[in-house]
């Protein structure tokens, strides 16, 4: 037959290559991708909760639940009324106890001295950051007291502050009468707080140095170019730049003052003279360990917890307001 009359050959379409089939497969793949996308988004949404769940469970089991039990126990009685509900009797007894009122007054003293306890490591960290001569040596020396036991620190300062100790000997050599540093009710608490600040400011120093690592050095250079003095640099550049670090140090220092001075108090003054160095922490130990009054101690612990929460929140609020004003 002539070539011109030949019919064009038609090749059969391969299986699975037809138009409708191809469209159905694409739709199925798109659906699979959408389902995987939704599943991935759901997993990402719940991942943070899954990661923090073990820590939350530990906090609830070891912190929150005992705290609730302690608060509940504070409304029960001691002695012949052990386990019986007594309402607010324990709290009334606390506020009628002169020793507990003295302990609360000393808490107020600690709050007043708190800015000093924060300013000391802050200034020392500033000098180290500005690389004063010997800053590497000072960094180690300043941190050294933080590794000492409170018992050792208390024993050392008992010798230094004794009535016939080296400090009074130095004062006598310049014609100053000796002072009973740990036996005078008007002086003893200040001495214990001063020793506590000396022994613990190394940790706050480390926190401040970590905060300085986030400070923009260009701001300091600009302040120097503008001729700002060191106090101006500290107040207008460093303090605003470290506002969050300062808030953290304020809160942790306050907690340390209220809950970590037992060792020093026990070794240096044992709450004396005349109960002038009592703090809630020491009062709680006396009631629980010596007087065998756990319910009253629980009530004192609850009040101490409320004080820390209230004072800590007030400090943060005041610092935030000061930061906005700057």
What does this protein look like?
With 326 residues, this protein is mainly alpha-helical. The chain folds into 2 domains: 49 residues; 238 residues, MetI-like fold, CATH 1.10.3720. It contains 13 helices and no strands.
Give a topology summary.
Layout: H1 19-73, H2 89-95, H3 98-129, H4 135-143, H5 150-160, H6 166-173, H7 188-212, H8 217-225, H9 230-241, H10 243-259, H11 262-268, H12 280-290, H13 294-325
Helix pairs in contact: 2-13, 3-4, 3-7, 3-10, 5-11, 7-10, 10-13, 12-13
- SSE pattern: HHHHHHHHHHHHH
Q: What name does the CATH topology of the largest domain carry? A: MetI-like fold
* Superfamily (CATH H level) name of the largest domain: MetI-like
Helix-residue proportion: over 70%
Largest sheet: none
Rg, please? 33 Å
Spatial shape:
flat
**Quantity of strands, as a count:** 0
Q: Please, what is the average pLDDT?
A: 84
Helix segment tally: 13
Distance between the termini: 102 Å
Beta percentage is under 5%
Low-confidence parts lasting 5 or more residues at pLDDT below 50? Answer: 1-10, 15-21
Query: What is the CATH class designation of the largest domain?
Result: Mainly Alpha
Which second-level CATH architecture of the largest domain applies? Orthogonal Bundle
**Number of separate domains:** 2
Keywords, separated by commas or semicolons:
326 residues, mainly alpha, MetI-like fold, 13 helices, 72% helix, 0% strand, flat, disordered N terminus
Summary?
This protein is mainly α and 326 residues long. The chain is built from 13 helices and no strands.
